[in-house]
Each structure stands twice: as C-alpha cells, then as structure tokens.
Amino acid sequence: MAAKAKATARQGVRRDRNLKEHRHDSYRLFGKLKEPTVCSGCGALFHKGRWTWGAAPKGAATTTCPACHRMHDKYPMGLVTIAGSFKEKQHEQVMGVIHNAAAQEKKEHPLSRIMAVERRPEGLVISTTDTHLPRRIGEALKHAYRGELEYHYDQEEEFIRVNWTR
After folding, report:
1. What is the Cα–Cα distance from 41 to 28, expressed in whole angstroms?
2. Residues 129-140: pLDDT tens digits?
3. What is the pTM of this model?
C-alpha cells in the first residue's frame, strides 16, 4: 500500500507571492463619475466615460477635472525644453507652432493642456498636463524647423521630457 505524503509547512503552497503594485496617481479619478459631469474650472464635460467638450445639460454634476487639478497644484506630467539660439530669433513663429499644436490636441482631448511657458537658464520650458502633448509639440517643432529632438520617458512616474534644440 502506498502511504500518502503529508504536506508540511515547508512544502506545498508558497505564501510569498510577488504582487504588482498599483500605480499611484493622485489625479486619476477612481470609480465612475455621475454622468453627465462638468468641470467647474474649464467647462469640460464627462460623458460616456470620457472627457469631451460640449454644452453641459441642465442638472449636470460638477467636479474638477484631472487637468485643472494638476494646473492648480502646478504638478506637470510632461516638460518640453527648447534650447538654442533659434528660439530667440524666431520667437513668435516658434510660439505659434507650439500653441497650434496645443490647440489641435486640446480640441480632441480636453485633458491635454499647456500649464505654463517659462524662460529658464536651460531654455524655454513648457509644462503640460499629460504625456502626449509634449511629444506632439516636439514633433511639430521638428517638422517645421528641423533641429534635434530627444524623448526621455519615465515609465515609473508616467512623466515625459522632450528636448528640442536648434
């Protein structure tokens, strides 16, 4: 007769599982918002599970959208740094390309916005509320004026740095 082996504490099921941590983003809304909901800051409308632009229906709930929350806290998700002498020579044209790219992105995605444009020692720095807008601005500058474009994406923090030089 075969004897049944009894599992001891050292054998059998492992209890030290590797668990993936959830990404912590204090600006992400957990759960579903009541639909329709309107942002009290910018007027964006949360409808059918996403933020859009549109007229708010009567009796819509109000909240602050993640982009307005980031702007209030001055906590960007992306930075575009423009370096080189070209930005000074063609300042108005460069700013026009930047604002046009931002306007196109904002038309489709209300949470994609420019937070601030600052002059710093490293160059002109543009902070944004999402990770897609810096890439779009960098590509628009490269398409319009060539130059060198670099991306630095930090996946752990969901942050992007875009450097354009000419």
Report:
1. 17
2. 999 999 999 999
3. 0.81
Nearest to 61 by CA among 76, 49, 45, 74: 45
Structure tokens at 112: 């994609």
CB contact at 8 A, 134 and 79? yes
CA distance 125 to 159: 15
Question: What's the N-to-C CA distance of the chain in angstroms?
Answer: 83
> Which tokens in the block code for residue 105?
């992105």
Sign of CA dihedral 67, 73, 78, 83: positive
Question: What is the pLDDT at residue 154?
Answer: 86
Strand order in the sheet with 114-120: 114-120, 123-128, 78-83, 159-165, 148-154
β 78-83/159-165 pair status? parallel
Starting at the edge strand that comes first in sequence, how are the strands of the sheet with 37-39 ordered? 50-52, 45-47, 37-39, 61-63
Give every residue of the chain whose pLDDT is below 50, as ranges: none
